[in-house]
Amino acid sequence: MAKAAKSTFRCTECGWSTLKWVGRCGECQAWGTVEEAGAPAPGSVAPAPVSSRARPITEIGVETAEAVPTGVDELDRVLGGGAVPGGVVLLAGEPGVGKSTLLLEVAAMRARQGPVLYVTGEESAGQVRLRAERLDALSDQLFLAAETSIASLISHVDAVQPRLLVVDSVQTMVSPEVSGVPGGVTQVRQVTGALIQIAKERGIATVLVGHVTKDGSIAGPRLLEHLVDVVLQFEGERHSQLRLLRAVKNRYGPTDEIGCFELTEGGIEGLPDPSGLFLTERTDPVSGTCVTVTLEGQRPLITEIQALVAPTPLPAPRRATSGLDTARVNMILAVLEKRTGMKLANMDVFTSTVGGMRLAEPAVDLATAIAAGSSFNGKVLPPGFIAIGEVGLAGDVRAVTGVRRRVAEAQRLGFTLAVVPKGFGESIPGIQVHEVEELSEALDHVAKYPKPRLVKK
């Protein structure tokens, strides 16, 4: 007798296959992603009727695919002009960062143009109504439903015929056609596929809220990010008012734009000019601080970096960072000790940013080095001073992108002195620019400035 064909189990994340089911993939080590695939059926695929004939691309109309503004300028900036009819947006972020608050305000603004359906699977309708009253986000065209079944959600869509659909969240929705717990791989894939089909067929702009895991990645299968059109990441420190919205993937616009929001008691407000949040308000200058300009997407932001260098009785000095890359700060400290002669081996060094800002680009290296040198030497930097540049292992100051845009932003906010890498070669009225080639040259240049006089009150 012929042996029966054995089933094949395949990982939905990386494609690893095995002859028996296991709970954890042996290749990518992901849990719950191995499913039965079965033997592929041989033979060719017969042609089937088409839904619409293929046309030249020049005959395709774009009127139905143009972005519609949401009413929130910072969100429109990240989306590339607004929400596209039929587009599916996945908004992810840590718990409590303000995802539901932001979307409720967006839904209320969009309800002025037509019906909006807000489906919540995590709260009751009364709880969402209380938040809407606090945010002043009430509208007769904003329809609210508390459902966890995708079948019931489709019924609400048929009844309301919304222009915007908000699902909070996709991990709470279940489909009766497949088995599995809510938030599981099978359920998330099935629910997301059904929502995408509804959005494309009916031209409804759809926003899905997604949970994140403890390491910050979006929960669920990686396929979820590939299926949607836009993936947005909502970031922010729990103890800070600043919230940043980044586009990780965007089929309709750029991915190098960010939106800045401020979380207040009355909700979330857009910040068209958020640089003031990243500067310390003080009357007397102190050592160990240096201001730089970072580029978040296409937006220059003024940011202050603080450093504290102090002797330590411990055999192993401490190195602590907040808002900066630890490995890069340690590299800068090693360059300072090797190339400039600073003795930091028996010093504790603490570095931080102001306002909860996270800096990862190399353009802030020079400001970090000057802040550490200022704290080590007790040298107070002059008012209106900024530093921009990348520091290399040889102690050289390298050029970075967008220097002119950074310096112009600093001049607009009242800064008068700037240290930049060699080769800038431009003159901007209102700000004095000094070009340096070595880190030691930048530190020597800063040391030439007289100590600011403290005004007695």
TrEMBL record:
HAMAP family: RadA_bact (MF_01498)
Keywords: ATP-binding, DNA damage, DNA repair, DNA-binding, Hydrolase, Metal-binding, Nucleotide-binding, Stress response, Zinc, Zinc-finger
Pfam families in the record: AAA_25 (PF13481), Zn_ribbon_LapB (PF18073)
SMART domains given in the database record: AAA
Name of the protein: DNA repair protein RadA
Sequence motif RadA KNRFG motif, residues: 249-253
Swiss-Prot/TrEMBL domain comment: The middle region has homology to RecA with ATPase motifs including the RadA KNRFG motif, while the C-terminus is homologous to Lon protease.
Annotated segments matching region Lon-protease-like: 348-457
Keyword Membrane applies: no
Role description: Plays a role in repairing double-strand DNA breaks, probably involving stabilizing or processing branched DNA or blocked replication forks.
Coiled-coil ranges from the UniProt annotation: none
CDD domains, alphabetized: RadA_SMS_N
Species annotation: Nocardiopsis coralli
Gene designation per UniProt: radA
